Amino acid sequence: MKIVNIVPGFGGTFYCGNCLRDSAFVQSLREAGHDAITLPMYLPLSMQGAEAEMPVFYGAVGIYLREFPLFRNMPGWMERLVNSRPMLRFAARKAGSTRAQGMEELTESMLLGTDGRQYHELQHLVDFLKYQVKPDIVHFSNALLLGMARQIREEVKVSVICSLQDEDVWVDAMEENYREKIWNLMSEKCHDVDAFVAVSRWFGDRMQEQLKIPSAKMHILPIGIDPGKYTLHTPASRPQAIGYLSRICCENGFGVLVDAFVLLKRDPRFLNLKLQVTGGMTGDDKSFLQGELKKLELENLLGDIIIHYDYDKLVLADFFRGITLLSVPVLKGEAFGLYQLEALASGIPIVQPGLGAFPEIINATGGGMTYTPNTPEKLAETLAGVLTNPGQIEEMSRKGRQSVETEFNCSRITAEMVEIYSKTIDELRLTNYE
Q: Which of these, 4, 58, 171, 373, has the minimum number of CB atoms within 10 Å of its CB?
């Protein structure tokens, strides 16, 4: 089967769980014998290695400039210049590159498809699919890409699948007068998609109601990873350490974790406790991080935190080797959270707020605990209970790894996704035949 996965690139400057999940999924499809490729949009998937050589559609700088009347009809040479590798590298690192505020009109235009200002880019993508790739199926990584669906279905004549994962994080961060408009546009465009795949039951239910998706089109399929690519570690005990693996920002709860860490360090039982952090950041996050470090400095705790400022997936093995448990207290929860599986595959238990899909994932794996409400005080209390119970840590470590090897193994998840692909393709052929 020839599969094209269309995903937003992120430039490789921080830990983007959804982007990493998409890349790993395509690799799993290839290992299963399918002809699968990833087409990044806006930015490359990373700035290094083979992924950086993939063509990038809807180049971030070009589509941003087209929002201004002066650049609406920019010549081809200018478009090639603004979407060159150096310019995309700059865009990936500039402040606000992942911020929804200020991108409302661009998001609306993208969802309008052929009626939006990116018609030129859309036709370029459609022609590439139609004449060069010729896929059996096209898979969007999220519903913010739905504006392309109708044109691809009609011109390329293939089924279109769409994953659902954290669209609410982007839309709900917009100016209030745009939110309803964007949700309504997404709901309208759902008619152009053959099937939806949500990464958790919690998020599937939420999006089915929000976008009015028919039950017949909805599938629930969690994220999967290859446990063989992760070294199984014994949770660190001398000294113990709390780990944080995500973009270092306010929304992902880094401030909650820092405040909880300060509270724990005031307890004589945790004098040797450490905090290890990795995941990278954008320009917007730097001032936030400085504020959090100032808190630690005032408590004389800067010597107890280790930050890997430049995220690199190659450091993960050493990162997991040095921690006792992982906590990413995302303020509003998430649709899944790839870092949870990465920790569990490495034998590291997780402690997460009782928000979003976190309870669903922890109940399914047995590899961690949830707490509520998502406050520093409650997180510190829960962390203290786990850190002082080595038997519980050992049990959660064992169960977590076992669940990844069985229930969340990418080979099983990929096989189920291929079944969804096959069913969708068969239904399209039957419709065309009739």
A: 373
